[in-house]
Design goal:
This protein has no helices and three strands. The chain is mainly beta.
């Protein structure tokens, strides 16, 4: 048995998914991504492997932010 991040199911049944702008690592083996709304740079670098990140869309549960 090996631990995998993919094993973690974070999609609760009752969380509707929304198209969300994300940055994805250009290295497909890395798989790192972040929400654009949480990145404050226009050309981010992957925090794990330092590759360039590319814009994409993902279906994600809405994040409720308490900021503001
Ligand atoms: Zn990466």
């Amino acid at each position: 048995m090996s631990h995998s991040r993919l094993d973690r199911k974070y999609q609760a049944k009752e969380s509707p998914l929304y198209e969300t702008d994300v940055w994805e690592c250009s290295d497909i083996k890395c798989g790192c991504w972040m929400r654009k709304s949480m990145a404050f740079v226009t050309e981010p670098r992957c925090p794990l492997c330092k590759s360039e990140m590319v814009g994409n869309m993902r279906m994600l549960p809405k994040v409720i932010t308490t900021a503001n």
